[in-house]
Every structure is written in structure tokens, then in C-alpha cells.
């Protein structure tokens, strides 16, 4: 099992040292997020200052960009990194697409993302092999690419695309068209085994691809102290209040709690929401263990159901280096 680190939000000038430290400790990959900053710019710097780490977006917001813009950015980062770049795409939710990004929310996010990925791959093929794109879908129409606008071929054209999601639709899409699935931090082992894995397998069957084509990348919420447990409880409560994530709670028989959390969030009761998450719920959605026991707890939960693992903790060099090394050493031996 591979262990990945996440870049903390911050200025670009911090990225080279962070990336170099992550590689020196032994992480396999480094992911950037789209929260306070653009997700692509840090990876250009990370690529320049590392040699081994895979570098990916977890995630870039798909519907905030056109397929051609995404194709160009990924193409350049793949070439610049020597083939280490992974394009991780997420849909976000309707309110953020419409009100934070000022873009249109598609009637079918799954179908729109499928077309976007098809358009991106079509452009990559044109740039590498020649010809012209011919994507005529319900959401995207990409039919023009003249030589003046083509970056031309490069040594690393096979760029992996990962899809992020919570529910079956996007997991099935990952099985159909993607190279990997980025699991939301709000999940349980049971949810992975009973909903996500079968949905990916269904998508693989639809597409006729082999099962090994889709990698499962999991981010785990962890807590090693009472203070971290408090933060994890609030984080789980926040995610569980999201209507589109209701199925996660419902699988465990906690749909009523999800509805209660939704009502509290609508009334601005953020401080009360954590109190709705019982210890059983917290231990279902987060890995709770003393720091010394956490590597074993992670291996027990994720061995056999995850290919890549990251912790819901930004990597800060010099703060928990020995802890990260112990986790890495233990997970190296975990079966995928």
C-alpha cells in the first residue's frame, strides 16, 4: 500500500521545501487541493524540486474549467514532471459551482464529467498522434484543434485520470473511464466494501476493462488525542450534514442523524452538530488510536481495500517526521 502526503494550503514559496521533505521521508505521492489556492501551480514547483514523488490534484474542480483548459494544464505538468502527474477531478456540489465559481451546474454531473474526460483524452490523442477532436455531447462540443494551438507530442502522454466522489454514480464512472477513484475522507470500511468497490466493478464490467485498471486512493480521518478526536467529530458532523452524502450514514442505520445534522446546519448550529456524532459513529468514520498504535490501526482497516492511503492531516515537515516514517514502514507490508 502506498502512502501519500497532502500539501497544506499556503504560499507557493513554501512548496519546494515541503515537497523535498515529503520525498526525503519516503512518501510515494503528494496531492494538492483546491481550497484557498489553485491546485495546479504548487505541483509545477513540486515537480521541479523532486525526482520520485507522484504529483496529483485531489482535487481540481472539473466544472470550474473547460476540457481544453484541463487538457493543456495536465499535458504541461506531465511533461514537466517526467510523467509523474495525476489529474484528479471532482465535481463539487451545485451551490459551489453556481455561487462560488459562477458556472453552470449540469443536469447530470456524472454524464457531464464522463464527456469532459472523453474530451480531455481526445485532445491528448490529437496532440500526440495528430488528427482532430470530435466530441459532440450533451454538455461539451470540442471539434477544433489547429496546429497553432496544439502543444504537440511529448514523452509522457499516458496521463492518469482519477475521479473523486462519495456515491455510486461517480464510483461507477471511475470504473468506466478513469484510472483511479479518490475516496472522500467521509467513509467507512463497510461503505468501501459494500458500495464503492462494487460500483467501480460495475463500471469496469460496462467498459470491458480489467479490474487492475482502477486504483483506489483513500484519505482517512484519524485522531490520536482527545483534541484531535474533537476536531474529527466536528468534521464528520459537517460532512454528514451534506444531503448528497446521506447514503453513507444511511448504510449504517443513521439516516435520522444525518437529517438532524442537515437541519442544524441550515440553522447555523455548527457548535451543536458535533454532539450528534456518537463514539460509535466517530470510530466508524475515523481511525482512533494512540499515535504509537496508529500504523497498525490503519493497516488493519485498509489492508485489502485500498491501493493508496493518505491521512486527513496536512504534511508539515519537522513536526511529526518519526510518526510518518513509522506509518510508512508498517504500510509498506500491507496487502493491496
End-to-end distance: 6 Å
CATH homologous group name of the largest domain? Luciferase-like domain
The helix-and-strand class reads: alpha/beta
Second CATH tier, the architecture of the largest domain: Alpha-Beta Barrel
Number of strands: 12
CATH fold-level name of the largest domain: TIM Barrel
Helix coverage percent of residues? 40-55%
**Number of domains in the coordinates?**
2
Count of DSSP helices? 14
Average pLDDT confidence is 94
Oligomeric state of the chains present here? single chain
Strand residue percentage: 5-15%
Largest sheet, in brief, is:
8 strands, parallel, barrel
Shape: globular
Description:
By secondary structure, the protein is of the alpha/beta class. It folds into two domains: 2-224 and 287-331, TIM Barrel, CATH 3.20.20; 225-286, no CATH class. 46% of the residues lie in helices and 15% in strands. The protein contains 14 helices and twelve strands. It has helices at residues 15-25, 41-48, 67-80, 94-100, 109-129, 168-177, 189-207, 226-240, 246-251, 255-266, 270-273, 279-285, 294-302, 321-331; strands spanning 2-6, 29-32, 54-57, 60-61, 85-90, 135-136, 141-142, 161-165, 180-183, 215-223, 286-288, 308-311. The strands form two sheets. It has an eight-stranded parallel β-barrel, surrounded by seven helices. Helix 3 (67-80) links the parallel strand 4 and strand 5.
